[in-house]
Amino acid sequence: MKTxxxxxxxxxxxxxxxxxxxxxxxxGYDFSALTTHYPALAPYVTTNAHGxxxxxxxxxxxxxxxxxxxxxxxxHIVDWDIPDGALCPPxxxxxxxxxxIADLIGHEKSDVRLLDIGTGASGIYPLLACQIYGWHCVxxxxxxxxxxxxxxxxxxxxxxxxxxxxxxxxxxxxVFDGIIQPDDFFDVSVCNPPFHASLEDAxxxxxxxxxxxxxxxGESQAAQPTPTLNFGGQGxxxxxxxxxxxxxxxxxxxxxxxxxxxxxxxxxxxxxxxVKPAIKLIHKQGARDVRExxxxxxxxxxxxxAWTYC
Length: 310
Hints:
With 310 residues, the chain is an alpha/beta fold.
């Protein structure tokens, strides 16, 4: 069952990229405004082959600086940074997930508690949920380095303090077990599961991205460097045994253990082949409602699965 959301308002310009109507990144990146408010981005901004301002999206430092500029200018988050090798999330797509989840639970609600499974070093979902909707969030991760980095972000931003708390998952074989406590109740959980099944797969995926970027710029793919990823404690963001499919199975099965403690469970699903098996398992676990929410950013299509036992 796919959910359909009415548009709340019409933006002043035509919609681009297929983003949610409330997503403030519908018109693309305003590099002039971003460099004015965040001068550190300026050295990375050049005019591309189409005569537009842009950055080199194959340069990790340029992409990380763009994220810091977007979070500073659009969401008033200062001192955002992540360690080398940590997953650098695309802000428009991550904001889209939060907006669609807000529609699912009622975006007019203010007293919302969100649980983020695998918050990573960026803490992106709690940051956006707090700054866009004022929600209270619990971010979880198995990596103490990631939680340490998010703690620094919280300490640097007074508006986040008291709204985001962090919990460490001590057992890599569990998702909700050990995190959700007996007296907890959450309105929704979110997750961006590790996509790859191994480090080798993750490296191959990064090489494909480099090749695609090179092709879009008209460059030789053979000239692209072999990606070197620093997985010093960051690997769980990108890969886990069994990849996305097994992680989803584990999450769905454990969600039943906490059926009365979370109104809606949800997860991104990157591989479309994983959707039908996941929905079948969700129904088998006794969920009363399942939603498949399509999201599109440029040529990339992904989807959110959400289910409830209520």
